[in-house]
Amino acid sequence: MTEKEILESIRNEFDNMAPDNFKSIENKIRKKTISFKIILKSAVAAAILALPVVTVKYTNSLNPLDPQNKPIAEITTVVSHKKTTPFSESVTYTTTDTTTAIPKTEIYFTDTGTPTGTIDTTFTQELQSDTALSENIDTSSVISYMTTPSLTISESQSTDINHEIDSDVTTDKTTISKTTEKTVPDTSIQLATTITTTTLKTEHTTTGYADTDIFIESTSATRPSTTTVAIPVTTTAKTQMYPTAANTSDCTIPTPPETSIESPVLSDQPCSSPLPVTTNPTPEQNVQVTTPKKPSGNNNVAASPPAPIKSFSIYFMEDSDNPNTGLDTFSFSDEKYIYTVYFVSRYRIIVTYENKTITYSLRTVLNSGIISPKELYENGLPAVLTPIS
Amino acid sequence: MENSNLNDLLRRIKEKDMTALEEIYSAMKNCVYGLAFTYTKSHSDSEDIVQDTFLTVWKKCNTYSENNPKAWIMTIAKNLSINCIKKNKINLELDENISYNENFESTANTEMIKSMLSNLKDAECKIVVMYSHGFSHAEIAEVLSLPCSTVRWKYRNAIKKLMKLSGGGKND
Predict the structure, then answer these.
(1) Does A182 share its domain with A287?
(2) pLDDT tens column, B17-45
(3) Number of domains, chain A
(4) Domain of A85?
(5) Which chain A residues are closer than 8 Å to B40 by Cβ?
(6) Strands A312-315 and A287-290, how do they pair?
């Protein structure tokens, strides 16, 4: 063989073996990798009560409504979330397409179950054909969905105190309305607000017994567009009025009603339990009551003030959420102060006295314990309880 | 294909002209395959290297400086071949005792080519294969990073061996 024949033989041999598949190269070039990164942000935990669902539909047609145009890929992701802290999570989705059509991407974000109902938001990202043919496409950080930028708390409380005197001497009705509106910053996690105590003083011109009915209607709108959750609370407090002398028109009521309305802690959940409302008798605010009318016959009652509670006990029941056998609140008093105990949870109580509020943790007391009001007063902090705020 | 035509095609590829890539693929796929085969000794690997070579041409054509298009493309193929060898951890003795028995088809010419190439050193094989596809000694030297005189000398030695094996003696 000559040199030329050898070279031709070698060339022909490799020509026969070499592939001829340009189509596969073209497909590789046209293949697009499209990444979606959906960033979900929540500034407040209260705005995310349900599982956000992200659905990504990727089609290669300009008309996604065309029934013949089925999505090339579809993914549905349930985004985990945290209820107690603001979060920012992302969902990344990658698809490839070897077609030459202009792709269209639809991303649906559905946040179901929130108090505002269902939020359907559709994001559409159209990809340019020339870009799709040249480089992979990364649409990361294109979509940022802020569920609720801020949270507005609007609370209004009105108290109707209707005194109905058993003796039918008089009926006094006083209405107090107080509205508190507060906008919580984005960083707020737990909503805690206390409405200023409203003190109502009434004078009655009667002797005998008075029943005090307190109606509290509290409305709380925890989100701007949330249906207002009404929390009707009805509490009846009885205040016994003891005349200083029988059959006299003047009587001293040692324990006139002082209405204290407090909302200790509001969580982001709709309230399911009534706000604790107490009517605390305050010795320093005795009300002189004169009776313009002659009282009826049964007001000639020689009564004495109830003996103050010297101590109270908290019993911890293993299977009970309320350590105090189902009571949400109760009061006791000693020689100095009147103490009101709120059971916020099975782990916390709030004790108020003399316009002071102390929160105690019950975690350290597992079985039982007895708290003396005297100890509470003298030492400030009961030995068995640990204040947490 | 002349270098000027290849430069025109590469300019069109810069503008994302798919037909230009197809033309350059048709013109150079055989020599790319031949060079890849001398490295990998594998038909399937060589096919993959051909695809990857032209994909790289498509993606990296903006970096081409219109100097020597043949050498540029063959250098891409050479580098991909070396990477393939490293990736597959093929420990071949490229200098001696190259066996093509498992890769060539058993045709008459193939047997002859196998016999010829198996008696050549690795560098001689590459030089002969590229020269058979129209590469000049200077272009081969650029691709293989060898002096042009070395390429010319190795080529002459290879041709002498092949002619002796084929029983011929006439040198064109």
Answers:
(1) yes
(2) 888 999 999 999 999 999 998 888 888 88
(3) 3
(4) 21-146
(5) none
(6) unpaired
